[in-house]
Amino acid sequence: MEYRILKIHIADRIAVVTISRPAALNALNSDFFNELNHFLDDLEPREDVKVLVITGEGKAFVAGADIAEMVHMNSEEGFNFSTKGQRTFDRLEQFGIPVIAAVNGYALGGGCELAMACDFRIASKLAKFGQPEMNLGMIPGYAATQRLSRLTGLGNALYLILTADTITADDALRIGLVQKVTEPEMLMEEVMKLATKIAGNGSQAVPTSKRIIRAGIAMNFQDASELEAVEFGKQFNHEATKEGMKAFLEKRKPDW
Ligand code: CAA
Fold first, then answer.
1. Does ligand 1 come within 6 angstroms of the Cβ of 67?
2. Selected catalytic residue, list 44, 133, 185, 228
3. Is 85 a domain residue?
4. Is the same domain home to 209 and 145?
5. Per-residue pLDDT of the chain in tens (256 residues, 90 and over written 9)
6. Is 108 in the pocket of ligand 1 (CB under 6 A)?
7. Same-domain status, 129 and 18
8. Which of 77, 113, 190, 228 is catalytic?
9. Nearest one of 220, 214, 254 to 238, comparing CA atoms
10. Same-domain status, 41 and 154
11. Residue 152's CATH number
12. Cβ 89 under 6 angstroms from ligand 1
């Protein structure tokens, strides 16, 4: 497929996807979802890529779903547009490797929802977050009504969605929406450092941890702990686990 919106760079076990539609502040349209799904299809079977980073080109990470595409929709089309976005973001959330959002600028509406579907968010000081859908007389459609409260608590989710207020990166850090704020020029360096660190951790332990943490959220504590014990046991079949422990005892770096 020829990508027109995504720029893709893969090197040293890390894939970086840059959403590049800067004239529309990287607003998410149907073509974007087609391209992202196609890219995820290609990436899924690859064993050489350990971390996926998503960022935006220009002054926005993503300024929302594409209002110019939505303005002509009827109810059924609106439902389909929402469902396609939700399924794609669910896919990112469940994706086999960690996904980091490098939030370079505006992360509004669908952009904030995209960032929330990533495993964590590192933001430039210039980034702005919010769910401004109320200003358009609509509700969020890519699961902000669910993910925002899970990430930041009920009060913060209700506040952000009902006021449509936009908040700074520092405020987003304060409410737990982002994990780290950097100087703008340091954003990609910090993100790549983090991605490299994660890519170098035990190869099966990282995706397994992600899967259990995510699955456990939807389970009761007892069942989730049991799942952890089952997966903890399974890892003793992996050479990487044996090597990790042996390396510690032999006072050397693991050879993964
Ligand atoms: N959809 C389509 N086009 C958009 C867009 C969006 N979400 N956001 C910005 N653009 C376009 C503008 O229309 C403009 O295009 P033209 O140059 O052709 O006029 C271009 O991007 C630049 O935008 P601005 O001139 O507005 O830039 P600014 O710096 O003055 O303002 C901004 C930046 C505050 C982010 C402003 O663009 C803005 O408020 N954007 C809309 C944000 C929004 O409401 N997002 C939610 C969308 S709804 C949604 O996401 C629903 C969902 O959950 C599925």
1. yes
2. 133
3. yes
4. no
5. 899 999 999 999 999 999 999 999 999 999 999 999 999 999 999 999 999 999 999 999 999 999 999 999 999 999 999 999 999 999 999 999 999 999 999 999 999 999 999 999 999 999 999 999 999 999 999 999 999 999 999 999 999 999 999 999 999 999 999 999 999 999 999 999 999 999 998 778 999 999 999 999 999 999 999 999 999 999 999 998 999 999 999 999 998 8
6. yes
7. yes
8. 113
9. 254
10. yes
11. 3.90.226.10
12. no
159 and 54 housed in the same domain: yes
pTM score > 0.70 for this model? yes
Taking the centre of ligand 1 as the mean of its atom positions, its distance from the CA of residue 149, in whole angstroms, is: 24
Q: Are residues 74 and 29 in the same domain?
A: yes
Q: Is 44 a catalytic residue?
A: no
What's the pLDDT at 256?
A: 80
Residues 191, 152, single domain; the answer is: yes
130 lies in which domain range?
Answer: 6-199
Domain count, the chain: 2
> Which residues have CB under 8 Å from 254's CB, separation 6+?
202, 240, 243, 244, 246, 247, 248
Question: Is there a contact between 168 and 124 (Cβ–Cβ < 8 Å)?
Answer: no
User: What single string gives the DSSP state of each residue in 212-236?
Assistant: HHHHHHTS-HHHHHHHHHHHHHHGG
Residues 244 and 136 reside in one and the same domain: no
Cβ count near 54 (within 10 Å) = 25
CA atoms within 13 A on the CB side of 56: 32
Residue 13 is encoded by which pair of tokens? 């076990």
Within this chain, do residues 89 and 194 fall inside the same structural domain, yes or no? yes
Is 113 among the catalytic positions? yes
Mutate to test the pocket of ligand 1, among 28, 67, 112 (most ligand atoms within 8 A of CB): 67
pLDDT at position 186, please? 98
Which residue type sits at 147? R
